[in-house]
Amino acid sequence: MVEAAATSLASIVIVGAGFGIAAYVYHKSYKYIVLKKMANAFEPGDPVLELAAIGKSLPLKAGESAAHWIQRPEQALVDAIIAGYIVGHYHLFIGEKGTGKSSMLLEAMRKIDGDGAAMLEAHADLEIFRIRLGKALDYEFHEDYIGSQFSERGPRDTTALLDIERAMNKLEKVALQRRARVGKPLVVIINQMHLIRDDEDGKDLIELLQQRAEQWAAAGLVTIVFNSDEYWIYERLKQLATRLEVLTVVDLPKVQATAALRNYRHRYFGETLSDETLEQVYDHVGGRLSFLNRVAKSEDMLATCDEILEVEKTWFLNQCWILGAEMDDDVMDQQKWAAAAVVLATALVDKEADMDKTYDPELGHVLPSFALHKAQQIMTRSDFVRALDRLNLFSITSKAQVRASSVPMYRAFKQIVAEPGFREHLQATIDRIAAIESLGRTRELVAKDLVFGGRYELRGAAGGGIDVTLREKENGGKTE
After folding, report:
1. Residue 453's closest CA among 475, 434, 431, 420?
2. CATH number 3.30.720.10 is the correct assignment for the domain at 43-144+156-248
3. Which of 198, 305, 381, 395 has its CA 20 to 30 A from that of 138?
4. Checking DSSP bridges between strand 222-228 and strand 90-94, what pairing results, if any?
5. Which residues form the AAA protein C-terminal winged helix domain (predicted)?
6. What is the pLDDT of residue 283?
7. What is d(CA 414, CA 432) in angstroms, rounded to the nearest whole number?
């Protein structure tokens, strides 16, 4: 019995020790592999670059040059940031949709073949943001950890925000190793930050990312680059910013815009445009790269310019046209928002008469603008202008200047304001809104005694008071 018990005990100890050693080795190996995979995500070559090369016909290799690429003035600075030569700050790129912010970032990544850089697209849903972050960093959030198969609560029984924090912890370890080996920080680009919802979850996510960005910028470990089309992201980051650097990306100046159009047209059709044609196209669409690219791909460029103008005008009218004096009171809330937008557009058009110049031979269009606080005063509301920025009707620059979102949109403003009877129609809408609000503030008091035929007799009383006597309606000589 003693011999059998000793044999059984030895077997149990050996099996238990074997399982324990195997579990410990697996755990350590898994953590090592996680860090190794994340480090590989920052090695040369990136799926984002491959997709961009296919979609935009860009050369994939770092040594190849893109002959059709338009060198923006900011490109050298962006190249230095993405290559890791600028340390100690994190960055916010802000500008209207279609100005070329993402293209500059992709071009900078292409020049270094994605070495030390990773890019992901933001999303309103935190779970999707978590998945995209994990894909960019090659991190599985312990979802493939075998230990979760033997426990009641696995590592994934948590929130998306906690998973993002765990990913940041792992990224910090990888950045420390790379810093010691290479001497340059990692670069993480978060594109389309404006897609994050402006609610409590979105604010928590932005705060988490900014805290990490501040810490890593101070230590020179990771440079985070935020890319946004909307001003509210800047407002949110500004509250806690210490090491934030803002780069404003606007439309191309006239000289560069016409050069871009010439290169685009030569690339697509092998055609060399005259200076007169370039001037006409620029006068219609300005220096927005997305518009220039669209015009250059079309057979009839001027017709496409008119189409772009019509699309912008239709978008504005569909979103915030005013209904006039016959407006029903049920739509008053929407019409208050629409009337404020139309009032601001009218004020921008009227301001053109007071400007020294609206067109520069070298810079091109100079759009009228108001300071943000002045625009809010014109609209008599402080909460509408940011919603208009999200709809790409107006644009708020990093210097808090409000103007039309693009040259075609401003041309649409001018056409709308110039329509016969427009100002009378706008004033009738404003008067109707004021009348509805006045009715909402009015209270009706009904004296039932008078309705039923009674009457009041008033006479002075001793001491300066008034006596009120009710004389009810008489029926057949009797008092009712």
Report:
1. 475
2. no
3. 198
4. parallel
5. 318-437
6. 92
7. 24
DSSP 258-292: HHHHHHHHHHHH-----HHHHHHHHHHHTT-HHHH
Q: Residue 365's beta-bridge partner residues? A: 359
Query: Is pLDDT at 479 greater than 50 in this prediction?
Result: no
For 53, 69, 180, 302, the CA distances from 64, given in Å and listed in that order, are 12, 12, 30, 34
pLDDT surpassing 90 at residue 154? no
Name residue, tokens 């004096």: 325
Nearest-5° Cα angle at 247, 413 to 138: 115
The answer to whether the 43-144+156-248 and 305-439 domains have the same CATH topology is: no
Tell me the residue type at 437: E
Specify the CATH number of the domain 305-439. Answer: 1.10.460
Contact 212, 74 (CB under 8 A): no
- How many whole angstroms separate alpha carbon 234 and alpha carbon 81? 19
The identity of residue 134, as a single letter, is G
- What pTM did the predictor assign? 0.83
**Identity of the amino acid at 160:** A
Tokens of 316: 């504005």
pLDDT tens, residue by residue, 349-407: 999 988 888 888 888 889 999 999 999 999 988 889 999 999 999 999 988 999 999 99
Condensed to tens digits (0 to 9), the pLDDT of residues 196-216 reads: 998 999 999 999 999 999 999
Segments making up each domain of the chain, as ranges: 43-144+156-248, 305-439, 448-479
Q: How far apart are the first and last CA of the chain?
A: 115
Assigned token pair, 295 = 């015009």
